[in-house]
Specification:
It contains 7 helices and 14 strands. The chain is globular, with a radius of gyration of 19 Å. The strands form 2 sheets. Strands 1, 2, 3, 4, 5, 7, 13 and 14 form an 8-stranded mixed sheet that branches. A 6-stranded mixed sheet has the order 8-9-10-11-6-12, with helices on both faces. It folds into 2 domains: 4-126, Gcn5-related N-acetyltransferase (GNAT) (Aminopeptidase), CATH 3.40.630; 129-234, Gcn5-related N-acetyltransferase (GNAT) (Aminopeptidase). The protein is of the alpha+beta class. Helices cover 27% and strands 33% of the residues. Strand 9 and strand 10 (191-199) form a beta hairpin.
Length: 259
């Protein structure tokens, strides 16, 4: 069976959407939004059999501590072609192309434990982590101003933040933002889980106040890059250096991930 690995054509958007919706528990509006805001033929890689797309993945341009990087997402193979090594070959092809374009790191967020083990086979390391802290509403109000440290964080651009706010709103997830801060949070009963946030200097309190004004929750869970002392460390994604012998720091924090 001859498989061709390549970038798609613009005319391939509909087959790519179809594969996405067949592979993921995704709202069609969210899928359409991704292709409207994030899709680029240059950063999408596909496997074709008889000129039909059977596997695909997407690389979102990012920055990691001043280095070119990407966030790999949407990796999917048609059910009739799974467990044949096609996705593995596509990953290797895509990463080779990305390295030639100047990317130095590849990041991804596995959806389950089995996928962590799967991506290890391609050189991805569990050097990414996050920290979880819990607060009651009154405790959150009394927190002191914090300084956000962007070192050791995978950062996407402002366009991706705007996309993510619109994308997550489809799933009834709220966002707050200004030129000085941004946050995404999900409400579950009396709990608000702030699963991504960032802010400029002297704007942590402004961000918190904006969150509080947009939820009646009394209990808050923050996922962060070790900003609070009362934190529990969790596994939170994987990284692969694309240059041979390149050192990889630990406790890297992946910023915005997709649903």
């Amino acid at each position: 069976m001859k498989i061709d690995f390549c970038n798609p054509e613009k005319s391939d958007i509909n087959p790519l959407k179809e594969l996405w919706l067949l592979s993921f528990d995704e709202d069609k509006k969210a899928c359409d939004l991704f292709f409207e805001k994030c899709f680029s033929t240059n950063n999408t890689y596909v496997a074709k059999y008889n000129d039909k797309i059977i596997s695909a993945l997407y690389l979102i341009k990012s920055n990691f501590s001043g280095h070119r990087a990407h966030y790999l997402c949407g990796a999917a193979t048609h059910k009739d072609f799974r467990k044949q090594g096609i996705m593995g070959s596509l990953i290797e092809f895509a990463l080779n192309c990305a390295e030639k374009k100047g990317d130095e790191y590849s990041f991804l967020f596995p959806a389950n434990d089995n996928l962590y083990n799967y991506y290890k086979k391609f050189g991805y390391k569990e050097n990414c982590s996050a920290f979880i802290s819990e607060f009651m509403r009154d405790d959150l109000i009394s927190l002191e101003e914090l300084k956000f440290n962007s070192n050791n964080i995978l950062i996407q651009n402002n366009d991706f933040k705007k996309f993510s706010a619109e994308y997550y709103s489809i799933y009834n997830i709220k966002s707050v933002g200004s030129n000085n801060y941004f946050a995404l949070f999900e409400e579950n009963g009396n709990t608000a889980e702030v699963f991504y946030f960032d802010f400029k200097e002297n704007n942590f309190k402004n961000m918190v106040n904006d969150i509080l004004q947009n939820t009646k929750a009394e209990h808050f869970i923050f996922t962060h890059n070790r900003l609070f002392n009362n934190a529990q460390k969790i596994r939170y994604g994987m990284v692969k250096p694309l240059k041979s012998g390149q050192a990889v720091p630990t406790d890297i924090y992946i910023g915005i991930t997709l649903n």
